[in-house]
Amino acid sequence: MTSLILLSLCLLSWRGALGQPDGVLQVKAKVSETIKLPCSSYKDGESNNKTLEWLSKKTTEKVIYRRGPNGLTVPDPELKERMSVDEHFTLEITDVRVQDEMIFICRVVDTSTKEDAVQLLVFKAPESPEIIMTKTSFRSTDEISEFGSCKSVNGYPLPTITWYKNDLPLKHKQNEVQISSLNTQLSSGLYTVESSLSLPLQKDDDKADIYCEVSYHLPSGDHMMESEKKNITVLYPSKSVRLFRLFPIGPVKEGDDVELKCEGDGTMPLDINYKRKGEELNLGEGPSLILEKVTHSSSGTYECTGMDFENLDESMTDEIELQVHFLDQPEFSQMSPVVVHPGDHLSVSCEANSSVETETLWKHKGHIMAHDSFLTLSEITHAMSGKYICIVTLPSVPGLSVSKELEIIVKGKPELSVSSKSIYVQENNLATVTCKALAHPKPTITWSANGTTSEMMEGPEITSELSFIVTSELLDIGVVVCKATNKMGSSKEEIKLYLSTTPPVSVTTSSDLLTSPAPENNTGSGNTVPSDTKKDVLRGGSHGVLIVVVIICILLLAILGAVLYFLYKKGRIPCGRSGKQDITKPGEKEQIVVEMKPDSPAEESVLLPGAQEKKPPGDQGEKYMDLRN
């Protein structure tokens, strides 16, 4: 091995000594390439009587090719298979090898001798460096310990290796960093380089990156390759432990799985045990403790103890407070169901024990009734009966909520409503009416007319539908009565029947028209007459039209008399004065307008006051007159 190292040093010294001699042309080539070496001493067209030679020189000169008057000779056995000379006396070498690195001399012999030299330099990039670590983890110590080696093979000329720690180069320093190298040249002439690294590793070196770099030369210049980075694990003892909750991240509630983790501030393994403070029972050992489906009783202080395997006499402890939030089922101040009567007042509280402050709301049929623990109902009606849901949540603990249902039963005689207070019908035609009853106990609905009935029940509400044939007897009676009865009493509603050929005209005020539909706007399953249709019916009766015209004329005369009397009382028409007196204010004209409502029955009309006229005190607005009676 020593002789190989000395030989390598000699070759390096020879290559360095060659350098670039004066007058010598350098040609660079990579291993396996083809290279051409020119001969400057040869001129094309010179006499064939000359002797032309190529010689190689490492330590001594050796003829490798000769051409002259005596013919052609190629005495070199190594190059003859890979060597050729063209008509310009250029030497071509294929599949260049490391052994081809030398000086080649071109010589022309005639009456005088001329020659020139070409130096061939050969290069080969090494393979990527590889780090081999002596072990995967190292103890923290001030003593120098061997870390590992870096190796790169098949390079030429001789590559060099540099070590790095956290991107900073390491240099050999006695008692701090030791780097040793071994270079080996193979029979192919290529080099294998290997470097070993030894250094002391401290606590701060934990997780540090160490890698090596090989530097080499090619015809294109200097190059380098890095090895894979190795992460150092430095083992050092813990001085304290830390206990923390790993899961869940937020507040802990009943039913959660909780994971506690205890770890030391060192990298050496610890013997860890868990227990609840004040209790001797060991809950588990290892790096973590899992508490499944915790309850309120799981709250408390948990403690972990860690001991170094190499120093069992000393122990380290830490503790954590675990609070498990809870929310009990709510309780009502009154037992469900609660029985009340129409018109009563009711207040029910909903309370639930919990670990922190709660929020409460009440819901009824999907609607929020209260944002409070108290549900207060005033002037109770049958519509307020049903199930009320109390929902209690913990705002600071997402996902924790409970609920409970309270049933309220309103006990009283039925509350009735009908689809229409009046409908238009035609004799011998089918009519349909609907009646709804709210009550507890369950009421029985009866009709005064014979027909086909059907009932549908939804909660405390019963809907009854009657389909009947309009007879002359029913028209004489003029009403259909819906009656609902239970143990608490009975209620009834009437639906008036109007013959569609003689529709009624109701007396209403303008405010009535805004709040209550006219009889013709009530529905009766096809038996009511729309306004347009009713006007057509009115036009068909000549007597009805004549009556309407007479009434309108009388109404206009009455209005005119009322206006004149009003102006007289206001002093607009003074008595005893001669000449004509304008009964209107200067610059104004009194507007007396009779408006026929196009969407109301033809019998209805209204007097609109003038635009500039102020209403006298006590005037209650516009009035509509019922002309039916």
Description:
- The chain has 629 residues and is mainly beta.
- The protein has six domains: 22-123, Immunoglobulin-like, CATH 2.60.40; 130-215 and 222-234, Immunoglobulins (Immunoglobulin-like); 237-325, Immunoglobulins (Immunoglobulin-like); 331-408, Sandwich (Immunoglobulin-like); 412-499, Immunoglobulins (Immunoglobulin-like); 533-573 and 587-629.
- The chain is built from five helices and 47 strands.
- The strands form 13 sheets. A six-stranded mixed sheet has the order 1-9-8-3-4-5, with no helix packed on it. Strands 13, 14, 17, 18 and 19 form a five-stranded antiparallel sheet that branches.
- Strand 27 and strand 28 (311-322) form a beta hairpin.
- The longest helix is centred in the last third of the chain and has 28 residues, at 542-569.
- The relative contact order is 0.06.
List keywords for this structure.
Immunoglobulin-like; mainly beta; disordered N terminus; disordered C terminus; 629 residues; five-stranded antiparallel beta sheet; 6 domains; 5 helices
